[in-house]
Write a structure and sequence with these properties.
heterodimer, A: mainly alpha, ABC transporter involved in vitamin B12 uptake, BtuC, two-stranded antiparallel ribbon, 1% strand, globular, B: alpha/beta, Rossmann fold, 3 domains, 6-stranded mixed beta sheet, 23 strands
Amino acid sequence: MTTSLTQKEARSGTSAADFSAFLGTMGPIAGLFFVVAAFAVLEPRTFLTLDNLQIILLNTAVVGTAALGATVIIISGGIDLSVGSNIALCTVVIALCRLHGLPPTAAALLGIAAGSCVGFLIGTLVTWFNISSFIVTLGLWGAVRGLAKRLAGGSEISTPKSWISHLLQMLPPGQRWMVLPPGVWLLLILSLFVAGVLRYTRFGRHVFAIGSNEQTARLCGVPVARTKLMIFIFATVFAGIAGVLQFSYLNNLGDPTTANGYELNVIAAVVIGGASLSGGKGNVFGTLVGALLMTVVGNGCSKVPSLTNADQDIVTGAIIVAAAAFDQFRQSRATAK
Amino acid sequence: MVLPPVNTDMKESPRLRMEGVRKRFGATVALDGVDLRVDSGEVLALVGENGAGKSTLMKILSGAVAADEGKMWLDGEEYRPRDPLEARRRGVAMIYQELSLAKDLSVTENILLGMEPVWGPFLKRPEMKRRAGDALSQLGRPDIDPNISLGKLSLAEQQLVEIGRAICVGCRVLVLDEPTSSLTQTDIRHLFEQVKRLKARGLAIVYISHFLEEAREISDRFTVLRDGRSVGGGPTASTATSEIISMMVGRSVDDLYPRSARKAGDVVLEVKHLAGESRPVDASVSLHRGEVVGIAGLIGAGRTELLRGIFGLDRIKNGELRVAAYVGPASPARRWAEKMGLLSEDRKHEGLAVDLSIADNLTMTRLPWLVNPTSQAAESRKWIEKLGVRCRSPRQVVSDLSGGNQQKIAIARLLYHDVDIFLLDEPTRGIDVGSKAQIYRLIDELACRGKAILMVSSYLPELLGVCDRIAVMCKGRLVRSVAVDQTNEHQIMLEATGAMEMA
């Protein structure tokens, strides 16, 4: 059936598959647009202000950065449930380094290194013992959080101000020329970088190959184990950077209990963005839109007086399910032949 | 002589009749007027190339999709199923290539799945057992234990369980879609016996297959589909195979197996006493440049495992292995570097990443550090054109393509990599005659250019037509190979079934 269908489509120039791909990119954007429009109508005075826009972007930066790494993992068919704990660990490591007198740059780099060590551990366990990343990171979700608490000695660690503080704070009046806080710029630059890696490097294509069909990747001589290990290290570098941003957002605080539940926001952002949890599909742009959509809902709900925190949770949950349902609908359209 | 009245009845209203069935998907016409008729106690072979419309027609028959136009009758009554459940209730059962059984349930539970006899909320276990046992004995296999879990049965036995399920519902029309594609020769024989038995009991059977010889053997009449239309048909016995093929492809295929004069060169692959984890047990074979060597044998003989062992996909326990100048086992990555490529028998699950684009699949073995998507697509386009793959663009996902075109992409990967040694595992399984002919021509051309080809196939005419030498593998052992003109189908079957040892 497929032949005659595709042949004839080739002649007419359009196809269900192309249309479906178009819907795939447009869906999340349309969702974002709809939510923004809804809040703009409900609360035009408090929601639609430049300051609030900046706050929304600020609040997106941490989850967005971590979601960049998660996009790569999810495309490869894996998952990382420990990302929230990892972010907390990073803030603690940075704070400890600062307390011991290390300069901020060294502290930030060590924080990122701590994040990628967790990735190395995940990758090793996944490839050596052949355990699914879901189980490995479910274990690390608790273990890494525990490690952060132990390192912090059970309480928050405050540290002196440094350049890190400015990464994710509202711009002071004198620096309005930057338009966006530096941390948001960082997110945008990193997004371009990850999108480029996924599209233009052998590593990126291998990520897709492994996620789409690991057997085929093996047949084609792709070093599957090594690539998986690299994927987790690469991805957790972004969890580490997210940790640096979170440290800044918390005003130079190393907090072992922070970023609790972020792993779910991160995964939701990636999935809303059109990735499939079974692997082989996903894109950075969608992930960014997904992360933004989640922040907008949270921010908007807080602006509408009649909506409570509970309502926000309900709306967010509904959006995640709606995104998955939409994706399923789109796929069944593409394959209905 | 007086005809029995039942017979005249059947002549007037066949068991199943379809007339002018049409179906379009969007702008695409999938079926463009199909007429079909099957009588009770008759086997109808439905043949046609991939993409001819067989699967859409069967989906309409089974209620999975609705026809736009046309009518269907079951025993003279109008038949228009709204969903597969109604089709099943009316007595139309489909046995697909991929069985729809629950591996962890018992044989009995599988046979009665969805129609378990109950007393209140409780299952009537004894009755279930009796009915399942009945179905199994009707299929000539009362020896299958109805209590063991289905996963423990062989593929052929699982298929019988699925047929048993159809019998249990009391089906009137049984559709078998490519039922033999993963069966051994013995299992096929047994299946055919069962089909004849069911036919004698008055079932109407529609038999869909790529294997024309098999379809000929089992069917009374045939109907050919081409481009969504029924283009011909008739009694099978009085029609020549070549005639059927001509109807299928719309032209005559005279020279299916081309064979130019080829000259064998240096030895490029030498395998001595190779043993894997369980298969192969002891395999020796050598391959020269410019030569096509075929490996025949039953399913489970260890042919696939031999190729996988050579290629480094399965672990090797023992034996010597030499690829060109390289000695010893190696990883697939090394093998590709040594200019050896493997075409997997399992296109969907191993051979291709079907959710990725044609270009990604084609170039996966040889990607530079930095990938330029434009040149990647250009390179793919070259092979798409050379092999005549029907697709819109190199960016199209592989799952969009038909089986034959998918296989061409899998083969194009080896050509793109420019390998010298081709390990081909069932290169023509499940693809249409036109694509098959093209692949045979390609193999011949490659051999003429000095490439070496080691090919596994379960289809003997193909091996005899394409290869220079044939080796027969039996129970993990492969000892010798003979020139193709010194053997024949009969001889190969004797060796493959191990009958030689006894003689």
